[in-house]
Amino acid sequence: MVVLGVMALWASPAAADPPSGLPAWLSAHVGDGDGQIAPTVLARARALYQRKLGEGVVRNPCYFAMDATRPNTGPDGEPGRRFYRICEVERTFQALPAGHGAGRRLEGVADFANGRECARNFGNAQDSELTTGGAYVTAETTSTFKGYYRAADGADVPLVRPFVQFDGEGETANARPRAIGGHAAVTLKGLCRRHAPGDPHANRDGYVLQGTLVDYTGGRSNGCTSWSPADAADIVPAVTNAPTTLYIYPEATDIAAVTRGDAGAYWNAACLREIGTPAYWSRDRLEPLIAQYWREHPAPPPRPIPICGAG
Q: pTM for the whole thing?
């Protein structure tokens, strides 16, 4: 009954009205259609940006928002567009793909794993791999060498992935210790050690990591915001040394409102049909359970990464 009630609220004209005071060009992007932004999400993202502008925290002409209640796949079968870059001075609006936190399934202790299509579980616990809704500001950008991968022409290409750290407040205040930020949805799998003495990335024994490049755009994340490589190549330089705001929906209070069936509560209807009722896992609730699981299931001793071509 709660699900049906919330879905009906989403379909009502009041829930679909754009926030008052929006310029006409931006109002045209408000709605529940593909590539549009829900009015609640835009109103909060805009308010956060204007507040941080007034505080002198940001000067970037653009700000970000994400609606993690939307599905991971769009109507065309491509990655769902639920991350937004809004530049009011330039009158530009972009809707882009982004992954949601995968969560975890801790056998016998707790199950807060998310499916690939829609996120049901949210939270701010350390080591939870969950998305936390709320207010963020982009901070420093760092780059990490992940290893080499073999390109189509046979060349070994280094994967150096930039990472934009987020700083939060309130429920998102632990974004930095959780290493929550934004980066391209690429990684290396099947790692081995290739002997490359003299390579600037080689370790003291003359080995570098080698793996297979995996693009997981449209997949799940470890709680960070993951963009396609092309989008990351545009976003990362735009916020490097130019902080801006990111508002991620939903917050814990929104999840509670949807669970109660409160009037005006927003959730994407397609995902609400899939998940039934969303859940928020607070640090106080979840971190002891995660600690219990690791006490009962200690990690095995690390195994050395194999030599490439050995065996």
A: 0.91
**What are 72-94's pLDDT values in tens digits?**
999 999 999 999 999 999 999 99
pLDDT of amino acid 309:
84
Residue type, 89: V
Enclosing domain of residue 18: 2-139+165-179+230-296
Backbone angles phi, psi at 273, to 5 degrees: -60, -35
For residue 197, is it within any domain? no
Residue carrying structure tokens 């801006």 = 244
User: Which residues in the chain belong to E strands, given as ranges?
Assistant: 63-67, 81-87, 92-97, 105-106, 110-111, 121-123, 134-150, 156-168, 181-184, 186-195, 207-215, 225-227, 245-249, 279-281
| Neighbouring residues of 307: CB distance < 8 A, sequence distance ≥ 6 | 192, 193, 195, 207
Query: Is the four-CA dihedral 191, 196, 201, 205 of positive or negative sign?
Result: positive
Q: Would residue 24 count as lying in a domain?
A: yes
Q: What is the pLDDT of residue 278?
A: 98
The one-character DSSP state at 139 is: E
Q: Which stretches of the chain are DSSP H helices?
A: 2-11, 13-16, 24-27, 39-54, 229-239, 252-260, 269-275, 283-296
**Taking all residues of the chain, what is their mean pLDDT, rounded to a whole number?**
92
- Provide the domain count of the chain: 1
